[in-house]
Amino acid sequence: MTSEWNGIERRLERLKECLLKLAPLANKRSDEFADNPYLRDIVERNLEVAAQACIDIANRIIALEQLEKPSDAHGAIEMLGKVGVLPREFAEKLAPIAGFRNILVHEYLEIDWAEIMKHLSRLDDLHAFMEYIKRWLKERTG
After folding, report:
1. Mind listing the pLDDT tens digit for each residue in 58-77?
2. What is the DSSP track for 71-128?
3. How confident is the model over 16-43, as pLDDT tens digits?
4. pTM score, two decimals?
5. What's the fold here for domain 3-141?
6. Which of 24, 52, 53, 141 could disulfide-link to 15, CB 3.0 to 4.6 Å?
7. How far apart are CA 42 and CA 133, in angstroms?
């Protein structure tokens, strides 16, 4: 695979690593995290990196396809739906992960744990994102 695609593949691999770390924690109750700051850190950091990987992949595809650059990360993920890399409804459903990432990074003192639990329960969306991107890559690279 050439270097232009390598960045996407590396981010897909990192996303996969995050999902592997998050999977065993997805069925835990909220109170189990309240009592364990180490588990909270694992979840928060891996959700942050997973969200960032999705954003970075979206922006890389936009650059490779020479699409109009959206104004923000939310728009970057939605753009993948507009051009058929992702199903449009799926892209609209996933795009709010960009705002969630911003909360994790910039508003970490005020994180709503219910919001984290919501995203932790939606790991299937991140797996689906990976599959859509892999399919897109295969179409481009053969």
Report:
1. 999 999 999 999 999 999 99
2. SSHHHHHHHHHHTTSS-HHHHHHHTTHHHHHHHHHH-GGG--HHHHHHHHTTHHHHHH
3. 999 999 999 999 998 898 889 999 999 9
4. 0.94
5. Four Helix Bundle (Hemerythrin (Met), subunit A) (1.20.120)
6. 53
7. 25
